[in-house]
Amino acid sequence: MIKGIAASKGYAIGKIKVMRHIEWTVDLTPAVDCEKELTELKKSVEASREQLKAIRDNTAKNIGEHEAMVFDSHMMFLDDPEFVGAMEEAIKSESKRAVAAVEQVKNFFKSMFEQMDNDYMKERAADIVDVSNRLIKNLLGLPTDNGNLEANTIIVAHDLTPSDTAQLDKTKVIGFLTDIGGTTSHSAIMARSLEICAVVGLGDITDKVTDGMVCIMDGVKGEVILSPSHSQIEEYEALAEAYRKKREDLKKYKDIKLSYKEGREILVAGNIGSVKDLDTVIENGADGIGLFRTEFVFMDRASAPTEDEQYEIYKTVAERMSGKPVVIRTLDIGGDKQIDYLEMEPEMNPFLGLRAIRLCFKYVDLFKAQIRALLRASVHGDVNVMLPMIGAVEEIKQAKAIIEECKAELRAEGIDFNEEMPVGIMIEIPAAAVAADILAEEVDFFSIGTNDLIQYTLAVDRMNSNISHLYNPMNPSVLRLIEMTIKAAHNAGIWCGMCGEMAGDLRATEVLLSMGLDEFSMSGSSILDVKEKIFTHLK
Ligand code: PEP
Ligand code: MG
After folding, report:
1. What pTM, to 2 d.p., does this model score?
2. CATH number for the domain running over 34-140
3. Which DSSP state fits 337?
């Protein structure tokens, strides 16, 4: 048995598929035999076409025609004489090796597409890179795909980025294991939203496994058993069944209304990163959305979403929550969430760097487009805007001035919005908790971001599995900061929620209730457990 960190609950019994990050170097020395390079290129184009056709057919069959279309566009590039022709030309007239020719043409088309005005064309840059890398891997004899995943697959990787996690096919992947990571890394948070079992921080699990190996995952205790015995499989099948039954029983708390003795209501809300996550949150009876991490709307694309695209997304979330409160956080890029098109400089300490609201003040147009979209969506439900990583009152004032500017623009354009749209802040920097009484004067609500608050208070990197034992939500310093924040909010007559992972941690529920927290917001999969805990505690 291998011990790791339980990152997303549940049990899984399946077969391992290792995802390895492949790197290559491009040989820039002149080709010795150009004819040979041309033949190699031709073979690679044919092989790529065959692979893409198989993936396309498989995707259409297992996921849907729409999802399969992306592979049609990859195949179209292979048929485009300007694309493959440019590679042949580079081999013939510049004596490039085939790999170098593909790399050169890839970079040329990538920057050409990226510079186009049209968003659709900009996104084609990612397709160009994808299909070119496939050609290169085929030329170098490297594995091109993670293969067609079978049902009941457990993915094993050194680490998974949030975008790797978002792309996991839930119909096939039942769990993932990683060498590094902690419970509040964004890939773990996404696993909980997707309701995929996850154990992270396993050290060197990638070296211990091979493709096809049978594995048991215990996402409750954070344990993994490789090549289990028959009796171990039976034991875990029984645990998985009991777990499923418990989840079924919890459904009775779905529509329960919770309140403190004096009548003040307690909301148990959901955290989402996309419209897709709404299903889990609604199925589990969320009283609202306490955190929409909008940065995921901006990731995995060649350019930022337009104001109109964003408006449609925020409007959908507001409408689907049917009048329940929806807290939408403005862009929190930085830390472990990066976007290529902003060309962010590498930083020594990205979690202490140009992140979240700080980045939005640098890219004001990007921020304004989001605020305008949020204001426009505010007429479709109970939309609340939340600013991340606030450390000082001046930042709130600066953000509010930009919001007022956007309101004035919309008024002048005759576009409808809610003049009273509430604006709140995340309390996730210790300085904000300490000065919560001052900040409370400026805003309509607080939401405590414990994932960051804990790491900044205790100087413990939330991503580092070597020090995860020090990452303690119940540390008295953390609890004091939380209590101060809730008190300051109530003294100023505003509500205070919590949207960090601690809100869904059953060990913390009672202490948070004793402090009078108004709203608990968490991954959809934890909502019913917390509702049950609050119900039984206050009964
Ligand atoms: C937090 O810091 O607690 C939080 C909710 O934000 P994120 O996890 O996205 O940093
Ligand atoms: Mg945070």
Report:
1. 0.79
2. 1.10.274.10
3. B
